[in-house]
Amino acid sequence: MTRAATAHPAASALALRPDPSHIPRRTPGHAPRHFLTPSNDRAHLRVPAPNGYSHAQATTGQERVITGNRQTDWAFADAYVAEDDALRWARDRAREAGLRSVSPGAGAALRLLAATVDAKAVAEIGTGTGVSGIHLLNGMRPDGVLTTVDTEPEHQQSARQAFRAAGFASNRARFIPGRALDVLPRLADAGYDLVFCDGDRQEFPDYLAESLRLLRPGGLVVFEGVFAHGRTVDSAPQPAEVLRLRELLRTVRESPDLLPSLLPVGDGLLCAVKR
Ligand SMILES: C[S@@+](CC[C@H](N)C(=O)[O-])C[C@H]1O[C@@H](n2cnc3c(N)ncnc32)[C@H](O)[C@@H]1O
């Protein structure tokens, strides 16, 4: 028998009610699930040891078992910022279309990041039905414009309606239908404060190259879904999509042009500032 994990005590203390659909289900009485973390998955991601320490020394005391409590903490963090009717509407359209959309926590992080860089111009790859777009627009300057690309015009049509329902004037978003790798080369060099990548994961390394050209110095590139639901750090054989995500993670970490951080919200939000 399964039951939904109960809300974190802090949630009731704050009188917050995370959306139960974002709380992972747990089976009472089962041993805590063990997840591979970068520290015990060096074969794939080759986490460098700090200077002067062996890996064994560097990770002593750091090897982590991610318990059900931690899962609940993460779920609480992910649902911490409430969403409004327009976002719920866009999520419903995504569900109907069988599309993923960013989690509330990833959306809140996008809003924060857009506000942090005082974004006036944001490029988005993968409009979907507009969930991430609303979060980005909420964080951007009031005169900021979101340029959003998707292969599917009907997804963009839903996003257009969602943006309207969220109260954004039509000139706040520029919808470009098409494949990202055909459209991005037409966008201006150094013309963007933030590039958000949520299209085809196999193309993420190519999006990175385009993003570096599109971003101004100090701008941010953000990739959604780099955990691939646990497969990125799973030592079992993985499909090409996951191998490409690992390639992206290594390239971003090793690039002298980028200052990265991997945020554990949603399905993993890889962020990097262009120096
Ligand atoms: C995960 S959904 C995006 C969800 C959206 N960011 C949100 O949170 O609401 C991925 C979207 O990327 C689009 N897509 C897939 N491959 C693409 C490509 N090569 N170029 C542009 N868009 C693509 C799909 O049509 C889909 O709408």
From TrEMBL:
<keyword id="KW-0489">Methyltransferase</keyword>
<feature type="compositionally biased region" description="Low complexity">
    <location>
        <begin position="1"/>
        <end position="18"/>
    </location>
</feature>
<dbReference type="GO" id="GO:0008757">
    <property type="term" value="F:S-adenosylmethionine-dependent methyltransferase activity"/>
</dbReference>
<dbReference type="InterPro" id="IPR002935">
    <property type="entry name" value="SAM_O-MeTrfase"/>
</dbReference>
<dbReference type="InterPro" id="IPR029063">
    <property type="entry name" value="SAM-dependent_MTases_sf"/>
</dbReference>
<protein>
    <recommendedName>
        <fullName>O-methyltransferase</fullName>
    </recommendedName>
</protein>
<dbReference type="InterPro" id="IPR050362">
    <property type="entry name" value="Cation-dep_OMT"/>
</dbReference>
<dbReference type="GO" id="GO:0032259">
    <property type="term" value="P:methylation"/>
</dbReference>
<keyword id="KW-0808">Transferase</keyword>
<keyword id="KW-0949">S-adenosyl-L-methionine</keyword>
<feature type="region of interest" description="Disordered">
    <location>
        <begin position="1"/>
        <end position="38"/>
    </location>
</feature>
<feature type="compositionally biased region" description="Basic residues">
    <location>
        <begin position="23"/>
        <end position="33"/>
    </location>
</feature>
<dbReference type="Pfam" id="PF01596">
    <property type="entry name" value="Methyltransf_3"/>
</dbReference>
<dbReference type="GO" id="GO:0008171">
    <property type="term" value="F:O-methyltransferase activity"/>
</dbReference>
